[in-house]
Amino acid sequence: MKNARNKNILLNLSLVYIYEEMYTEAIETLNSLLDLFPNDAFALYHLGLIYSFTEQYERAIHYGDLAFKQWLPINNDKAQQSALLVCESFISLNNKDGAAAYYKKAQEKGMEPADEFKDLGL
Fold first, then answer.
1. What is the mean pLDDT of residues 74-86?
2. CB atoms within 10 A of CB 73
3. CA 122 – CA 104 distance, rounded (Å)
């Protein structure tokens, strides 16, 4: 692929794949992006989303948490989105205690509370 090392092209291509529900291709593209930029918060978050969409909640938790850690120092809104993904994944695994513990830990690390977490009962 021409420009296969361009971060924005890889991210945008992965978003097209996600939109088209071509999750295998999206995962491959995001992994290529992470090979070049290992801590890219957008790629980590979108991998978490894909794994949530495909009901692979343990992986969604893993990548959502990695994205949270990248976002927290630079963008609280994106950190909240990532933490919400993690908490929703815990709840999908029938682990509300895990969701509550993660939310508490996220707040202790500096994430501001958000109404979306109240909707989950946290």
1. 96
2. 10
3. 9
